[in-house]
Specification:
This protein is globular. With 318 residues, the protein is of the alpha/beta class. A hairpin with a 2-residue loop joins strand 8 and strand 9. The chain has a domain of 180 residues: 3-Layer(aba) Sandwich (Aminopeptidase), CATH 3.40.630.
Length: 318
């Protein structure tokens, strides 16, 4: 097995430029799932992945229609007695606005140093392609050591509204010993990381209404309660001074960390986050529930993803 691994790694190194070319191909497809105008691009990306699976000799390669974006499936079950892994990925990406802040075209993959810049490069076309090219490297140097199934969806960036129904109606073909989802982060470039738990998502929209028509702030300001201010007050009251969510029962069903988990987190390396374009190093463990590691992987959070008030038009940027 060690020899095949070494041979597969050498194959990958020898085919670096070909792999990079494929990477650029998928990155150039503007598969934005939140915009109806890009539905043809979503289909294009799904077909591109399907072609990749077929080129690897995968079996039962199919595009399953859903109520939205198609799901790409393929499998290789030719290794008797070996475990079966289900590889998950998504091929849709977020919108690119504001475009004027991009230094390179969002769908014009650009290599600068050791990095490549494009929408979806790391979330998660890069990881999806890595799994495909890893399989290719193994196949070309001795064959797959395990059985493998692939599931690529095109709606992750809109909450995967059709994935649960697909899984529920296709449990037979999706049966596996374990699943791999590489749509997550790493401690650092040189520190491989296994993420064993991820938070889910529940979202809602709040709308606050005031007068039935516009009122001049110079005449009515301070007299009529501005809906935007009411909303800001509401949002501000959702957290206390320590950053804890104040909504009643918010933490009621949250499982506490075990001693072993706390020890692992205390032993992990420092996290790096970006604040005002400058890297800031944070300690992994402080008080339970307040440490960065807890907040990003253990504790539930309450965030605001967008605010809109009045008719702001095009907002000037610094």
């Amino acid at each position: 097995m060690t020899d095949q691994r070494d041979n597969a790694l050498q194959y990958a190194h020898n085919n670096k430029e070909a792999f990079l070319g494929a990477y650029k191909e998928i990155l150039a497809i503007p598969s934005i799932s939140t915009e109806k105008a890009h539905r043809p691009d979503i289909q294009h990306a799904a077909e591109w992945l399907s072609a990749q699976l077929q080129s690897l000799g995968m079996q039962q390669v199919q595009l399953f229609p859903t109520g939205g974006s198609p799901i790409v499936y393929g499998e290789y079950l030719g290794v008797t007695g070996a475990p079966t892994v289900l590889v998950y990925g998504h091929y849709d990406v977020q919108p690119v606005d504001p475009v004027d802040l991009w230094k390179t075209g969002p769908f014009e993959p650009t290599v600068i140093g050791d990095d490549i810049f494009a929408r979806g490069a790391s979330d998660m076309k890069g990881q999806a392609l890595i799994t495909l090219k890893a399989a290719e490297s193994l196949i070309k140097t001795g064959g797959m050591p395990i059985n493998i199934k692939w599931l690529f969806e095109g709606e992750e960036e809109v909450g995967s509204p059709n994935l649960a129904a697909f899984i529920g109606s296709h449990t037979d073909i999706l049966a596996c010993d374990f699943a791999v989802n590489s749509d997550s982060g790493m401690i650092g470039r040189d520190h491989p990381t296994i993420t064993y738990g991820l938070r889910g998502l529940a979202y809602f929209e709040l709308r606050v209404f005031g007068p039935a028509h516009d009122l001049h702030s110079g005449m009515f300001g301070g007299v009529i309660h501005n809906p935007a201010i009411a909303l800001a007050e509401l949002i501000a009251g959702m957290h206390d001074g320590a950053g804890r969510v104040t909504l009643p029962g918010f933490y009621a069903r949250v499982r506490d960390l075990s001693k072993e988990e706390r020890a692992e987190l205390a032993d992990c390396r420092s996290m790096k986050v970006i604040t005002s374009n400058k890297p800031v190093c944070l300690r992994c463990m402080e008080k339970p529930g307040s440490a960065p590691t807890n907040k990003t992987g253990v504790r539930p959070t309450l965030d605001v993803n967008g605010l809109l008030s009045g008719s702001p038009g095009k907002v000037p940027r610094p």
